[in-house]
Amino acid sequence: MKxxxxxxxxxxxxGAQQVSWLIHGLAAKGVQNVxxxxxxxxxxxxxxxGTRVHAIPMKGDLDxxxxxxxxxxxxxxxxxxxxxxxxxxADIFGGIAARMAGVPCxxxxxxxxxxPRWWAPLKYRLYDRVIVISEAIGRVLVECGVxxxxxxxxxxxxxxxxxxxxxxxxxxxxxxxLPSDEMTFGIVAQLIPRKGHRYLLEVLPELLVAYPxxxxxxxxxxxxxxxxxxxxxxxxFDGRVQMVGFRNDLRRVMPxxxxxxxxxxxxxxxxxxxQASACAVPVVAARAGGIPEIVRHDENGLTFDVGDVGTLKQxxxxxxSDRGLRDRLGVEGRRLATSAFSIDAMVEGNLAVYKSRLxx
Length: 360
Description:
By secondary structure, this protein is of the alpha/beta class. The chain is built from 14 helices and 13 strands. It has two domains: 2-157 and 342-358, Rossmann fold (3-Layer(aba) Sandwich), CATH 3.40.50; 169-339, Glycogen Phosphorylase B (Rossmann fold, 3-Layer(aba) Sandwich).
């Protein structure tokens, strides 16, 4: 079996990281892989040995010339199937090129954005199958008019081994200027409105008074950075809420967190939550999008309705008051990360979709 992968992401995180793991897993099962990526795409240096790479100009949604560049590669490589992994023009132009070449094509969809009902059925007819990373994303597509029979859910994976790192309390407390008796929550998300930072900030003042050893670290970058930075400097937060920006060492940081909080209003899946579980750290999250598929209430975390700040505060207080609950949720999270959300499970899920199409 020969699969041609199209990935337009330039940085090796999120979807591109999933594609790298997929290619490694497929290669281990004897699948031949070809990768098409941007000229400056970091993924080209992270794929399995033996993967043929075509690094080409990929300029986004208006890059009509991408159709011809892809068509030339498809005809030269003659793959059995094409797997498109990203948007930014790769989805539409890749689908058109696959149709022109007469090669079966599947698309991965990682976001839960609503698409116009007049447009979605036309667009998704380009693909023989649509692989969504959560059942919730699949439901969004069906509501947009996409045929449910073409949709298969294959959840994203977490490299649980790489997140199985020891707790380094002294380093963690020194790195973030925390006291020795701290219990620290983290929120790991883009600084954008739909991630729901405001809900956490709303409940924190009371909790900070009730739990003097509570601290909060806000990880991430985005357009809300200035607004959130100004907000956490208010006296209500007692200097115990820090904006810490983007970190490339989250694997080292996460095991030291007391819990990860994710009050998002919309979420396709939430890979950072899988990472937290892999670190045996419980998650408190809103039941938005695909989150309930990876955060199971009273198993590896606690969940609440979107915007329900009363229940969010109750859950956080419960965790802070009950170390045994915190530890139990963490242990179960680690078990789930190494089984249901493993890289092997993700690879097998994608491979099953390929086989189902090629055996038609």
